[in-house]
Amino acid sequence: MDRLDAMTAFAAVADRKSFSSAARHLKMSPPAVTRLVAALEDHLGVALLRRTTRTVTVTDAGARYLERVKRILAETEEAENAAQAELATPSGRLVISAPVTFGRMHISPLVAEYLKLYPQVTGELLLSDRYVNLVDDGIDVALRIGELADSSLIARRAGSTRRVVVGAPKYLAVRGMPKTLADLKGHDIVRFIGGAVDWSFAGGERVELPARYFTNSVDSAIDYVVRNGGLVSLLAYQSADAVAAGALRIVLSDLERPALPIQFVYPTSRLLSSKVRAFIDLALATRRWEF
Question: What's the pTM?
Answer without folding.
Answer: 0.68
